[in-house]
Design brief:
Strand content: 5-15%
Helix content: 40-55%
Number of helices: 13
Organism: Microbacterium schleiferi
InterPro entries: DUF222, HNH_nuc
Structural class: alpha+beta
Protein name: DUF222 domain-containing protein
Pfam family, one: DUF222
Length: 453
């Protein structure tokens, strides 16, 4: 037996029905799904409460200290590194999670309780926290209560406008005042993506963003409109005698190219990458550390990716263009078979030891950190003032954040043979950080093929 539910008009095809067995299976799936969702919500909130305890412990440790803010920051960094090391998460990420957890537990108890019972979703929680971020702390409790009531009525997407308006009306300061303050916090960030790409993110006033978008669109239209029409002759000229350049980029591609060209060169280039030159890359004067396989510098089609240390892999062609046009870069030429570093050259630092350390460390050696070595500080693992030697077996790279942690928290670092760092946490746990392997190398086509080096 099947039950037909829905339209009477069958001209568009049969209406899907359920047999008794289908209905039974669906009921079981629904029941199991609700059970899983409920357990997941409880576990999620339990994790938040544990992380909040970590943040509250850091606050307790800093209480009574002369420099309370600095002491709290150092205590929180130390705890975040401990939890991060145990879960293979960077301490920066863990510190953000701890801060978010403390905020949820202390400022949004009603919201958190609703999430714990699976009455609302994770999207509801994120919406309320984001909407309430501008509110003063003394108004969060009332906002927590009212916003949670609205979350219980519908999906996060449907009540978004209502929650945002609620926060707007509750705020004691005018929109203009808050906009001016937000403008003061403007900045530019880079978020690495896959396939050698990155996003450039810059929060700007909305009117500026719309103006940028409109200008890019108008300029892109101008480029597309300048293309020759269907009357273009075989010799590459259109009816007006203009040369057809073969520009087949889409609107989105042109807008992205114009965005890069305006920032890099101050003026747009109509056809930046159609055979006339390296395009936007030609304007880059990079100060980066790039691990490049030796064969990648020979313009071979079989070359694998290079490594822009601390960010993401980049293609060999980009690496070659950086090598040709940059005023400074640190090249690590690697063995095409084993990946062993063969040479470090480029930027002429007076101390060969610095080049050797950069070649070995590549980035900050603290657990989970990927800040490039060229932006780090060199640390004496055994304090120089206490007799520690200035040699490769007692030196490594730490970013400023982790260098100061080593100085002002109970974390201890010892360097073992082979450049292995042994970290001892305040709880006595021991973690090892090995020198990063050189990820860029080639595999020979035939077993036993002799290496070119």
């Amino acid at each position: 037996m099947s039950s037909n539910v829905g339209r009477d008009d069958r001209s568009i095809g049969p209406v899907i029905g359920y047999t008794d067995a289908d209905l039974g299976a669906l009921c079981q799936i629904l029941s199991d799904f609700e059970d899983v969702e409920a357990r997941a919500a409880r576990e999620e909130v339990a994790r938040v409460r544990v992380l909040a305890r970590a943040g509250q412990l850091a606050r307790k440790q800093a209480a009574g200290q002369t420099a309370t803010v600095r002491a709290h920051d150092m205590a929180l960094r130390s705890i975040a590194l401990e939890l991060g090391a145990a879960s293979r998460v960077s301490d920066r990420s863990m510190q953000r999670q701890i801060n978010d957890a403390v905020q949820l537990v202390e400022d949004y108890p009603t919201l958190l309780a609703a999430r714990e019972t699976a009455a609302i979703t994770r999207q509801h929680v994120r919406l309320v926290v984001e909407a309430g971020a501008p509110l003063p702390l003394d108004m969060r409790a009332e906002f927590d209560r009212l916003a949670t009531e609205r979350c219980l009525t519908d999906s996060a997407n449907r009540i978004r406008a209502s929650v945002m308006i609620l926060a707007e009306r509750m705020h004691p300061r005018t929109t203009q005042e808050r906009h001016q303050e937000a403008r003061e916090a403007r900045t530019v960030r880079i978020r690495p993506l896959s396939d050698g790409m990155s996003e450039v993110c810059a929060p700007v006033p909305t009117v500026i963003a719309v103006g940028i978008d409109d200008r890019l669109t108008q300029m892109a239209h101008a480029i597309i409109d300048s293309r020759p029409g269907p009357d273009c002759t075989e010799d590459g000229l259109d009816a007006r005698g203009n040369i057809f350049t073969g520009d087949t980029r889409t609107m989105d591609q042109i807008r992205a190219d114009l965005f890069a060209q305006l920032l890099l060169a101050g003026s747009p280039v109509v056809d930046p990458a159609a055979g006339d030159g390296p395009g936007p890359l030609g304007a880059i004067r990079a100060k980066v550390q790039v691990v490049v396989p030796a064969l990648a510098l020979t313009d071979t089609d079989t070359a694998g990716p290079a490594d822009l240390v601390g960010y993401s892999p980049i293609d060999p062609e980009t690496a070659r263009e950086l090598a040709a046009g940059a005023t400074w870069w640190e090249r690590l030429v690697t063995h095409p078979i084993s990946g062993t570093v063969l040479a470090a050259d480029g930027y002429a630092r007076p101390a060969a030891l610095n080049r050797w350390l950069r070649a070995r460390d590549q980035h900050c050696r603290t657990l989970g950190c990927r800040i490039p070595a060229i932006r780090c500080e060199v640390d004496h693992n055994d304090d120089y003032a206490k007799g520690g030697k200035t040699e490769h077996g007692n030196l490594c790279h730490f970013c400023q954040r982790h260098h100061s942690m080593k100085q002002f928290t109970a974390w201890q670092v010892q360097q073992l043979d082979g450049g292995i760092l042994q970290f001892t946490s305040p709880t006595g746990r021991v973690y090892a950080d090995h020198p990063p392997p050189v990820s860029v190398h080639f595999t020979p086509d035939e077993p036993g093929e002799p290496a070119p080096f």
